[in-house]
Design goal:
Membrane topology (chain A): Multi-pass membrane protein
Number of domains of chain A: 1
Distance between the termini of chain A: 41 Å
Number of strands of chain B: 0
Transmembrane segments (chain A): 31-52, 139-157, 163-183, 195-215
Distance between the termini of chain B: 25 Å
Keywords (chain A): Membrane, Transmembrane, Transmembrane helix, Transport
Structural class of chain B: mainly alpha
Radius of gyration of chain A: 21 Å
Oligomer: heterodimer
Order of helices and strands of chain A: HHHHHHHHHH
Largest sheet of chain A: none
Shape of chain A: elongated
Radius of gyration of chain B: 21 Å
Organism (chain A): Actinomadura harenae
CATH superfamily of chain A: MetI-like
CATH architecture of chain A: Orthogonal Bundle
Domain ABC transmembrane type-1 (chain A): 27-212
Strand content of chain B: under 5%
Number of domains of chain B: 1
């Protein structure tokens, strides 16, 4: 318990709050890497997932659907630490190769949830939209996407948390960010820095959960919230 | 541990990605790491199952419990593994326990909802039929409800097992990582072979565990084979995304 108190005291040292190794700088690094990886992930996976869910007829579509789900299950088995180290050793440079594992591991949750969300839209709802004269794109944007939103948000949240935690581990291979406190603390046997870093990462993860809970409340249609 | 490894050619110029002779020379270290990995990942799954069964059953019976319990487990689920490991070091030191506690918690957060969903998957008329046949609560639970819940619970168990197997390697950062030790070792010596071996073995272990669980499920639900296996397969594919939560690291 003393160790945890030390970690809390660590926050109140003046040196923790300025300079390259200060909390504000490390936090902004962490947010920058994570934000970049998240943006790229979303740009790749979200349109693909929505589209694959929308085009559900035909053998090719069902094959794609199956491979999307299989890839997500497979991605769970990939050890992040190993991928990060391998990426860095093979390319022997820092930022870009570390971002690639972050993105690769975050794509499946976004893809799968967007795909399933759209695919699970009630056929009756879709028929009604088509019966009203909506075109395919209109059905996707006005009906399927809003109905799928809770699952889409869940996928985005999972990806965001995944990226933030992988970015922490990436400190081991030399990336900046909050993980530095943990990795350097372990190396120098300064437990207060390690635990302080861990507490910051935990707070960040909670913040993300909170933001997505808020988003869900604001963005999801009230009619949907009542049922799910 | 690194002292026991064979010497390595320096630099990555001309160094092949895999040196097969290294694998042969270090097979005992690899086997040891594999054993550690197996223990570190499977024990939490078993513990998690044992703990989440009663919790899940209670939540299925007393619905008001479910929301707070799931809220708590999903918050725990969001905490990155490395952070939990590090915080626990203060209490349990650099031991296996430190790695196994967070993995057990992650297992709980997948399995408690799975048990509740499994109980929900029991059709009401089956429950009534069992009661009408004179089954008491306990006998109905063990002989009727739990067997019907098996596929849903097993789906959760597979997710938890596979993500645990890959998560254990993060423990290498505090020195308890099973095959993850090969990663840190390879990184310290700028040597890719152990890293590739580690990744390959972790994936192989995950696939093997998944296959074992599938076989167990088949043995536990002989009736599923009797019906139209095609429909069951389609249902399984659809049921899969029912747990879209991925493992946080």
């Amino acid at each position: 318990m003393n160790a945890i108190l030390d970690a809390i005291r660590w926050f109140f040292h003046g040196e923790q709050w300025h300079g390259t190794d200060g909390i504000p700088h490390r936090l902004s690094e962490h947010l920058w890497y994570s934000g970049l990886a998240f943006a790229i992930t979303v740009a790749i996976a979200l349109p693909l997932g929505l589209l694959l869910g929308h085009v559900r007829r035909g053998r090719a579509a069902s094959f794609f659907g199956f491979s999307v789900i299989a890839s997500a299950n497979g991605a769970r088995a990939l050890p992040t630490l190993g991928l990060l180290i391998l990426a860095v050793l093979v390319t022997s440079s820092s930022l870009v190769p570390t971002l690639i594992p972050l993105i690769v591991l975050a794509i499946p949750p976004v893809l799968v949830n967007a795909y399933t969300g759209v695919q699970q839209v009630e056929p009756g709802l879709r028929d009604a939209a088509e019966g009203m004269g909506m075109t395919g794109t209109q059905v996707l944007w006005r009906v399927e996407a809003p109905v799928a939103l809770p699952l889409v948000l869940l996928g985005l949240r999972t990806a965001a948390i995944q990226i933030v935690s992988t970015a922490t581990i990436a400190a081991y291979v030399g990336l900046g960010g909050l993980g530095r406190f943990i990795v350097d603390g372990l190396k120098r046997q300064e437990y207060s820095s390690t635990a302080g870093g861990a507490i910051l990462v935990i707070l960040l993860a909670f913040l993300i959960q909170f933001v997505f809970a808020l988003l869900r409340r604001v963005a999801v249609s009230p009619g949907l919230r009542r049922t799910s | 541990m690194s002292a026991a490894l064979s010497p390595v050619a320096a630099g990555d110029n001309g160094e092949p990605l895999i040196r097969w002779d290294w694998i042969g020379h270090n097979s005992d270290i690899i086997t040891q790491a594999l054993n550690d990995h197996l223990v570190l990942s499977i024990v939490p799954v078993v513990l998690g199952l044992v703990i989440s069964l009663p919790i899940g059953l209670l939540c299925a019976r007393y619905r008001w419990l479910y929301a707070p319990v799931v809220g708590l487990t999903s918050v725990l689920y969001a905490i990155p593994a490395i952070a939990l490991f590090v915080v626990l070091v203060a209490f349990t030191g650099l031991t296996r326990t430190t790695v196994m506690i967070p993995l057990t918690l992650y297992t709980l957060s997948v399995l408690v909802p799975a048990v509740v969903d499994g109980m929900d998957s029991v059709p009401e008329h089956v429950r009534q039929a069992a009661t009408a046949m004179g089954f008491g609560t306990l006998r109905r639970l063990v002989q009727v409800e739990l067997p019907i819940a098996v596929p849903v619970v097993m789906a959760g168990l597979r997710v938890a097992t596979v993500s645990n197997i890959s998560l254990v390697s993060v423990g290498a950062l505090i020195g308890v990582g099973g095959l993850g030790q090969l990663f840190t070792d390879g990184f310290n010596r700028d040597f890719t072979t152990p890293i590739i071996v580690g990744i390959a073995l972790i994936i192989a272990l995950a696939i093997a565990a998944d296959v074992v669980l599938l076989v167990v499920q088949r043995l536990l639900t002989p009736w599923a084979r009797a019906g139209s296996s095609r429909r069951a397969a389609r249902r399984a594919v659809r049921a899969e995304p029912a747990m879209p939560e991925e493992a946080a690291l």
